[in-house]
Input
Amino acid sequence: MALEQVLATIDKNLNHSLERLFALMRIESVSTDPAFAKNCRAAAVWLAKELSALGLDASVRDTKGHPMVVAHGKATAAAPHVLFYGHYDVQPADPLALWQTPAFEPEVREVGGRKAIVGRGSADDKGQLMTFVEAVRAFVEAEGELPLAVTILLEGEEETGSPSLLPFLEANKAELKADVALVCDTDMWNDTTPAITTMLRGLMLDEVIVKAADRDLHSGLFGGAAMNPIRVLGKIIASVHDGDGRIVIPGFYDGADELDPEIKAQWTALDFSESKFLGEIGLSKPAGEKGRHVLEQIWSRPTCDVNGIIGGYTGTGSKTVIPAQASAKFSFRLVGKQNPESIRASFRDFVRKQLPPDCEAEFLAHGGSPALQLPLTSPYLKKAREALAAEWGAPAVLKGSGGSIPIVGNFKRDLGMDSLLIGFGVDDDRIHSPNEKYNLSSFHKGARSWARILDALRS
Amino acid sequence: MALEQVLATIDKNLNHSLERLFALMRIESVSTDPAFAKNCRAAAVWLAKELSALGLDASVRDTKGHPMVVAHGKATAAAPHVLFYGHYDVQPADPLALWQTPAFEPEVREVGGRKAIVGRGSADDKGQLMTFVEAVRAFVEAEGELPLAVTILLEGEEETGSPSLLPFLEANKAELKADVALVCDTDMWNDTTPAITTMLRGLMLDEVIVKAADRDLHSGLFGGAAMNPIRVLGKIIASVHDGDGRIVIPGFYDGADELDPEIKAQWTALDFSESKFLGEIGLSKPAGEKGRHVLEQIWSRPTCDVNGIIGGYTGTGSKTVIPAQASAKFSFRLVGKQNPESIRASFRDFVRKQLPPDCEAEFLAHGGSPALQLPLTSPYLKKAREALAAEWGAPAVLKGSGGSIPIVGNFKRDLGMDSLLIGFGVDDDRIHSPNEKYNLSSFHKGARSWARILDALRS
Output
């Protein structure tokens, strides 16, 4: 069996794989601090050299910020062409004093009863991206060529919001287009259960400014007769949800399909502790739509939150003012086929209808993007699920992500590709914090997982 | 008739009275700017000298800030002892460029078809306080003595919140105690209709901080499951009033008596334009309790306003955060016998009862004071009404004031005196603004009004 040889190669080479990962982790590629710009470039150069050594056509590509690494590898197989995405930049190591060993001197040691690779970037994202590179290496070593056509795109600005990524995608569409994207920057369900993130909620951001009198008023002289915009805004905020936590804006749920029964059954059966999840942030009761599982509430149901509010006097003490205006920033998480701009229009109508006499509302649009969902019928998904189940002995959880992962939207909109989000991080990896770690099993079985996935995709 | 002689003396001396007022107005006694501290003292010294010349025992009394002027005058009459209060400090003259004539070079000229004294302090409060001093002078000149025992208290920090006044009252209670206080720092109803301010709303200030999770949360990762304190606060704000604008906090209206029918009839009959009053601040409809006259809403009805609110991200753009807390500053205007501290307790209970699971509320008390009301049965009020009606040929409007006038509360609580608030300013005097003016008729008939009031009180 060809796959068995590839997996055996990964097992045999594990120590060498670790040495290569350590070499990459020693490069202090902190993207946010200009003092480390040279280190970022050094990481890109190191990766391009490594990929070239595997026979890929790799190059360091300049941007206005830190460079991209792009590598292309051809294959005999007429199988799908995959684009792999990862990032080589890392968060700053501060506060340095809290690291048990230096952030950029990686080592393997026991953490919480498991062997782990400790150091900045171990889990986010150097360790993760190297699982894919090591899988590719094993194919080259065992079979003499890549399993399928591969493009690898590694950026150096993920930790600073990826400012160069979209322009780079747009300028190099033809070069980067593939059949499906593989993204390795997410977590497993737990130490032993793999996961694929298939649902990403969309987002619509809108700001409301309620105005009443043409100036701030003395609340003694006018209080009782003058409209108070904070009160009006409070009423608007209070009226968005009904008593069951449902949003009452007309048409809001259009396109917000119910969860597929298979996924719902999977989530319900998961070993998930609501009290632990909420307890970690000081809460105990899910505050969302009644009758929904917490995972549904955060992964597959749309929401409305107020992210900020301000009006009147906000300093210490008191000031008896009725302010001329008050404003609030609303965000709506969207799912399924909900249309951000239709919802924006409906929200604004809803607000306007609640304005009492003498009040007006101004609005500021802060962007919007639809939800993304990998169809359950995707053949790539099917193969990846089988591959992960074979490696881990447990079916992959098909997760949602409540937050947005912009790269996935860009791949979909600009390059017309779905993305398989598969990663091997776990909850306690402490990414962005001191003593970041990546389980040795994540690294090892992650590489094996990619080998199985690539093998499955080519068949 | 003795009074007729006093009034004739005022008429005869009008030009000299104006010269004295001008001398006082030329002293740039701006209290807020330390550069003018010497001018403030100079104004106090000028006043003490002026009062001494009238036979009063006058002195300049140091405080931590600008000095007080206190003057005592004895009288043959066993009549009530009155304490007169006014202030000699003024607002800054800025913006200087907008003055048609220099702020501190007073003159009489026609303004809006009426002769007026133009200059900083003409209406607020030098012109007003000098109406009383000139009335006293006329008694001394016409009758050789004061009509009744008078204490005059003039402060120099009214425009900066009177920081020294309460300590001075407390330190000199015995000296300052009188039977009734006369305060000349308010307005008439209009150019030709006098007014006495007999109702001052009280105030209770409380701040609410709603807390949920123990940290700020990512609204993507937790939105839909996590409690949002801004939403909770919005609901609290929205729930304070019912659809008719009434406050639903239990017990809130206890002690908020209905307006005396006589006063209500007077207010209803007043030449008052709701649309003009609201139109000046860009509004058109009274927003308070349904079925109440606007004057009732602002003078004799209690209110709840939110004076400030803040929570989450309030900078430019958006941030997808569910904040750990949000806070709002509430103020309640109180009337009649409403008890600030009972209402504070009831409000806090009301807030706590609306908190959903996992939310708590913290409170910050920012002070409170009950409403003040001069009883309609007060013999001093009766005499002042008769005196004003005789001078102006129109009954005095018994006004309310929606804002607080702290000195009146201090006189009541610390010295056990009611206050008669009688002043001769009008709406368009532009106090605190460039081209401040005081109608010549206000100055002249103001002095005559005080002469009549003092005469009435002694009888």
Observations:
- Chain B touches chain A through 79 residues (CB under 8 Å).
- The radius of gyration of chain B is 25 Å.
